[in-house]
Amino acid sequence: MSFLAVFLAAAISPPGPTLAVEDTMHTEVPPIVVHAPRVTLDEILARVARGEAKRESLLTDQTFLATARVVAHAAEKGKEPSLYSETVVRVYKKRPDKVKAVVLRRYRATPKGKGSGGDASIRFGPGMGERLVNFAFRPESRRDFKYHIVGRDIVGNHVVYRIAFEPRSLLVPGQPEGLVWVDTNDFVIVRQEIGFERSPAPLFLERMDRMVIEREQEAGHWVLRRVLVRATATFPIPKLGRTVDLSLQFDDYAINSGLPDSLFRGGSGRVAVEGD
Q1: The pTM is what?
Q2: With contact defined as beta carbons under 8 Å apart, do 215 and 55 qualify?
């Protein structure tokens, strides 16, 4: 505070304590140069492969509720999308090769009549590796894709990497490209967005508009939480139209509970999801 300011304050202030206001003090912190090398992309990819393998190795059995919904987008303009079918399944899995899916509830907006096409089906495999999530980040897939880091974000007290991948060759039809979010606490993929430059099944699908896969932690383990897919068919499907949304929601997990082998007798991992 300048001398003049102190003098004026003393002159106009009544007798008693006077509180001075500091207006000249400032602090400057010198920059710190960090010489530690940044983790390379190759090392990040190797850590993701190890993190995914570790996640898989910690799971011996699991039980969960899977809800599959098919939402139809009508061809008529102004008409809202509507729920066409819903199937709720209890799934049991046990390493190395046991799986069973039990249908608990089915809903269909319209009765299935004659001349309808075959139902779509979802197959639950016995493995815990969730290739749907990490297919492009398994060691054997490194030769098929190119990768680059899109960004690094601070979430809580750790870093989340965003890594994009794309096919190395355009000669392989239907190869996806996408973006993953990698949690560096465990180096596992917690979210993935997938797109297709060309349709993976051109005879049936004009395009695969979008696919989103998300994981969440359950009892300390990263597990599937939801899968969202939007696809447009090459030709209109009766009662469904051309554009369809398929969603899979996974809830009510029980992990490493010691499922008995007898539970899997007469079981199958394939479930029909009704759609014409």
Answers
A1: 0.78
A2: no
Nearest Cα to Cα of residue 123 among 269, 274, 273, 275: 269
The Cα 73–Cα 200 span in angstroms is 21
Contact 119, 273 (CB under 8 A): yes
Structure tokens at 211: 């696919």
pLDDT value at position 242?
A: 84
Q: Is residue 208 a contact partner of residue 199, using CB atoms and an 8 Å limit? A: yes
Sequence-distant (6+) residues with CB within 8 A of 105 are 86, 87, 88
Domain segments of the chain as ranges: 41-273
Q: Tens digit of pLDDT for each residue in 58-105?
A: 999 999 999 999 998 876 666 788 898 999 999 999 999 999 999 999
CB-CB contact of 62 with 263 (8 Å): no
Alpha-helix runs per DSSP H in the chain: 3-12, 41-57, 131-134
Look up residue 86 and give its two tokens. Answer: 């819903």
pLDDT at 9 (0 to 100): 47
In three state form, how does the secondary structure of 178-234 look?
Answer: EEEEEECCCCEEEEEEEEECCCCCCCCEEEEEEEEEEEEEECCEEEEEEEEEEEEEE
The Cα 196–Cα 85 span in angstroms is 26
Expressed in percent and rounded to 5, the helix, strand and coil fractions of the chain are 15, 45, 40
Q: What does the alpha-carbon distance between residue 96 and residue 128 come to, in Å, rounded to a whole number? A: 9
Confidence at residue 112, expressed as pLDDT on a 0 to 100 scale: 63
Report the CATH fold assignment for 41-273: outer membrane lipoprotein receptor (LolB), chain A (2.50.20)
The answer to whether the beta carbons of residues 44 and 161 sit under 8 Å apart is: yes
Please give the mean pLDDT across all residues of the chain.
83
